[in-house]
Amino acid sequence: MNSGCTSRDVLQSYFDLLGELMKFNIDAFKRFNKYVNTPEKFQAFLTQINSSLVDSNMLVRCIVLSLDRFESQTEDVKVVEVLSECSLLSYMARVENRLSFLFRLINIINVQTLTQENVSCLNTSLVILMLARRKAKLPFYLNALREKEYAEKYPGCMLNNFHNLLRFWQHHYLNKDKDSTCLENSSCIPFSYWKETVSVLLGLDRTSLCAIVRYIDEPFEDLDRDLLED
Question: PANTHER family given for it (predicted)?
């Protein structure tokens, strides 16, 4: 963070390494809080993440996954202490901040611009929604996406884009065992749950609270039904 690094490749490597060092490591979050110990330092750290989200999204994913793990370990005194004191975990625990990341992760990619470098943004957005689904909060998140579209006067834009991205995801990951294994191993979420969540999101039943299509008003529905069909 203090290196003044401008190279995207190097910056992404820094973020990826930091994410791997911190993932599920309560001591690492405690150490982070020791060094990033003022509001100014923390804001500078957030600014770096937010200004390079394609590069930093793996770190965001690691923080989200770690928070979810730690919240299930509240019988551990050390975990409870770090959860209450760590600025980074407290920040990510706030739903509005997770939603902010979700909005931007979905908006910075589309099927036409997907690359090996930025497809991870799609997987990070899925991690946020899978963890929400585990807690029966998926409808809340989908409705928040809909409200965001209307607030910005682009109804259907984000959700149509996300729907098409998820169809790409199915086409890509359901046919590549190696890539699906990597997703499972890196997230500690069974690939079957990844598949199931994507299938639920892509459901065509408008009465389903967990289907994207429910949150797109019909006049604005623009799903690319021919996407990737041979």
Answer: SHORT TRANSIENT RECEPTOR POTENTIAL CHANNEL 4-ASSOCIATED PROTEIN (PTHR31743:SF1), TRANSIENT RECEPTOR POTENTIAL CHANNEL 4-ASSOCIATED PROTEIN TCPC4AP (PTHR31743)
Question: Under 8 Å CB-to-CB from 28, ≥6 apart: which residues?
Answer: 21, 22
- State how far the Cα of 33 lies from the Cα of 110, in Å rounded to an integer: 35
Over residues 57-105, the pLDDT tens digits come to: 999 999 999 999 999 999 999 999 999 999 999 999 999 999 999 999 9
Do 132 and 61 share a structural domain? Answer: no
Phi-psi group of 156: left, alpha or beta (phi > 0 → left; psi -120 to 50 → alpha; rest → beta) = left
Q: Alpha helices, DSSP H only, in 72-173?
A: 77-85, 87-93, 95-107, 119-134, 138-151, 157-173
With CA atoms as reference, report the closest residue to 168 among 220, 216, 103, 123: 123
> What's the total number of domains in the chain?
2
* Residue 136 covered by a domain: yes
Q: What is the mean pLDDT of each run of 10 residues along the chain (230 residues)?
A: 62 93 98 96 96 96 98 96 97 98 96 92 98 98 96 91 96 86 96 98 97 93 53
Claim to verify: residue 41 and residue 119 sit in the same structural domain: no
Q: Is the pTM of this model over 0.85?
A: yes
Sequence-separated (6 or more) residues with CB below 8 Å from residue 34:
none
Q: Is 68 a member of any domain?
A: yes
